[in-house]
């Protein structure tokens, strides 16, 4: 139970950090003055949030699973698109 609560807290902090950085700052956005280091930071937060979401989905009930999957969907799409853009170059 305590491990699940710790995962919940880590997921919420990671999701808040991701959405704050994406929507309220120019971190990682090359078109608005972002740097490569900021982009790597954003990707690290994204991957950690997705990994925590995968671990957490196995431990919670269905309503919370739906919420976790909805919140983690945007970071997951971002990672997939980043990988696709690297492969296409």
Beta-strand fraction estimate: under 5%
SS-derived structural category: mainly alpha
User: How far is the N terminus from the C terminus?
Assistant: 45 Å
The largest sheet, given as strand count, sense and whether it forms a barrel, is: none
Work out the number of β strands: 0
Q: SSE order in H/E notation?
A: HHH
Mean pLDDT metric: 89
Query: How big is the Rg?
Result: 14 Å
Unreliable parts: none
Count of DSSP H/I helices: 3
The assembly state of the depicted protein chains is: single chain
Describe the global form: elongated
Helical percent range? over 70%
What does this 3D model show about the protein?
With 89 residues, the chain is mainly alpha-helical. It has three helices and no strands. It has helices at 2-24, 36-57, 62-88. α1 (2-24) packs antiparallel against α2 and α2 packs antiparallel against α3 (62-88). The longest helix is centred in the C-terminal third of the chain and has 27 residues, at 62-88.
């Amino acid at each position: 139970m305590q491990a699940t609560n710790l995962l919940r807290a880590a997921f919420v902090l990671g999701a808040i950090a991701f959405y704050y950085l994406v929507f309220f700052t120019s971190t990682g956005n090359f078109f608005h003055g972002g740097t490569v280091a900021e982009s790597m930071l954003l990707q690290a937060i994204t991957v950690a949030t997705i990994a925590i979401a995968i671990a957490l989905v196995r431990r919670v009930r269905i309503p919370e699973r739906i919420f976790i999957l909805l919140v983690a969907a945007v970071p997951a799409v971002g990672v997939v698109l980043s990988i696709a853009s690297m492969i296409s170059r």
